[in-house]
Each structure stands twice: as C-alpha cells, then as structure tokens.
Write a structure and sequence with these properties.
alpha/beta; D-Maltodextrin-Binding Protein, domain 2; 2 domains
Length: 329
C-alpha cells in the first residue's frame, strides 16, 4: 500500500511530461521569429504563368499579418536574384523569402512552406521550429475573418475594380474626386501592382518617386494604404497649385492628372499645344478612357489650348514642381 503514492506520482509524470514538453516546444516555435524585427523579401518577378499579377500584393499582406503576431516590427522588400537571398536565409540574415515554387531548389540549409497557393512558397531557415510555426499559424489564419476578407478583395468579385477599392474610395473623398477616377489614374500608373517599379525608381501603386514619397509621408512604399494616401496628397498639392489657372473644376481635374504625370510646368506646356506629341497628352487621355470604362462620365470639354485660355506655361514655381516624376513603366 505504501507504494501506491510513488506509483501514482510516476504515472502522473509520464502523462504530464509530454504535455509540458509540447507546450515548451510550441513556445519555442513561436519565439523562433521573435528577435525584434522580421526581415522578409518577396521575389516573384519571374515570368511564371501560374503567378497572378496580384501575388506580390497578396503575399505582402499575409507577411504583414504574420509579422504583427510574431515580431516587434517587420520589413518587406522586393528582391531579385533568388540565389543570393537563399544564402541570406541560410546564414540568418533574412527570415522569410517568398518565391515561385518553380524556382525553389531543395537544400539542407533551408526549408520551404506552401502557404495556400501551390505556385508560391515561403523559404525559411532549416530550423524545423520556424517551418512548424509557419504551418501552425497559417492554418489558424486561414480560418480568420481577416483572411476571408483578403481573399474576397483579391478575387475582384462583385464588380470590384481592384483589391484596394476601399482605400481608393476613402482617399478620393479628400480631394473631391469620383473614386473611379483615382482608380483609373492608379491603374495607368501601376495596374494596381504594389511591385511596379519604373526605370527611374518610382515605386508602388501610385508610382511615387523616392523624394516625393518621403515628402508626402511614405515610410513603406509597398504599403497600399501609404502609397495611395501619399499619391492623393500629392494630387491635392498639384490641384491647389494649378487652381490659379482655371476656375473650371473639370479643366482643373484633367490638368492635375497631366501634372501628376509630368510635373506642373511641363503639363501646362503640353496642354497649351507646344508639345502635343508628348507622352503627357497620351497619358491624360488614357486615364480618361479608363475612367469611362469604369463607369465614369467623360469630360464635356477635353483639354486643349483653347480651353486653357491665357495660361502662362513659363511660371517658375509651377515648372519647378516634381520635374523628377516619371511613370514610364
């Protein structure tokens, strides 16, 4: 009889130890990404027919959601040259690399995790705790309302124009525009791809040049909310600056769009007729056509030299604004 307490204690230890061990293992898995800042690179700029044009934007948002629950902060950048980034993963200089599954080469130094889309994988260090935690987290995230909303937005169902319609609607109100017009401009700049980058370095949905992005408060140019908000603030700035040249709201709107493309001074020169073959006139017309295709109302009077009256395209202040802006994708 005296042995019973000892036997009971041993049995309890045998039962409880695996439970405690699993709990400790789980905590270790979760903490495997907690080193202050999560460093991520998306490298999906490959001609893979299986990749959706919004794949970068979709994975960016999943990375942000993961970072929110697993790190104090997260940085997400675009990358080129998968080999160099694989080396960074193996050496611990990078935490997560998002690449096409077709580009992955199996190696003992890294591990690959499919995150819902078989054409895309997330690459992490070979430490099994990291891949295990990714799988566990994503399984839970897929059942969340946040993920369901992401899937809805990126499916473009129900008459949606882009995955970022709500952001475009909110920002369009701040400058008194039909949101479909702002969407038409964004499409002309990037086709709603957060990864769009011009030869001169303009980046994101609104193709913000680094100097302009910094001036209008962008910290992460890939972030759709930041990029669209900054682009809209820049449009408001141009609209206010150009309002001295016309009292007609419609003329001012199209003049602002032209200025977004080439800068205020150049837009005035183009639209006065001095450079009618320039890309600015074509850009403005393209935005108008896209806006009409979205259900917007075509302008009653297209901009022309006559519609602009006595504009002085030599105005120094206007001419100095954003000469660097460039949207030639």
């Amino acid at each position: 009889m005296r042995l019973y307490p000892h036997v009971l204690a041993v049995l309890l230890a045998l039962v409880l130890f695996p439970i405690a061990g699993n709990r400790i293992s789980h905590l270790k898995d979760k903490d495997s990404f907690r080193d202050g800042k999560l460093r991520c690179v998306i490298c999906l700029n490959y001609p893979d027919k299986n990749l959706d044009r919004f794949a970068t934007g979709f994975n960016y948002e999943i990375l942000k959601a993961f970072g929110k629950s697993h790190s104090d902060s997260i940085s997400v950048e675009l990358g080129e040259g998968i080999g160099n980034h694989i080396d960074s993963i193996a050496l611990g200089g990078l935490d997560i690399l998002v690449i096409p599954a077709s580009e992955y080469k199996d190696t003992a130094d890294v591990a690959a995790v499919a995150m819902g889309d078989s054409s895309i994988i997330w690459v992490v260090g070979a430490d099994k705790h990291r891949s295990r935690e990714l799988v566990r987290w994503f399984a839970k995230f897929q059942g969340s309302a946040e993920y369901s909303e992401m899937k809805r937005r990126f499916s473009l169902k129900g008459g949606m124009i882009s995955p970022y319609d709500d952001i475009l609607k909110a920002n369009a109100q701040t400058i008194g525009w039909d949101w479909r017009l702002l969407a038409a401009l964004a499409w002309s700049e990037s086709k709603f791809r957060i990864q769009a980058k011009s030869p001169r370095g303009a980046l994101g949905i609104m193709q913000m040049m680094p100097v302009t992005a910094d001036r209008f408060g962008v910290q992460d140019p890939l972030d759709p909310e930041e990029n669209i908000a900054a682009g809209t603030r820049y449009l408001a700035f141009l609209k206010d600056m150009l309002s001295r040249y016309t009292e007609d709201p419609e003329t001012l709107t199209w003049l602002t769009i032209a200025a977004y493309n080439s800068g205020g001074g150049r837009a005035l020169q183009d639209l006065e007729g001095k450079e009618r073959s320039s890309a600015t006139a074509a850009y403005t017309e393209a935005v108008i056509k896209r806006y009409v295709s979205y259900g917007g109302k075509a302008p009653s009077v297209l901009l022309s030299p006559d519609s602009l009256g006595g504009i002085d395209p030599g105005d120094e202040e206007t001419g100095d604004q954003e000469e660097e802006h460039d949207d030639n994708e």
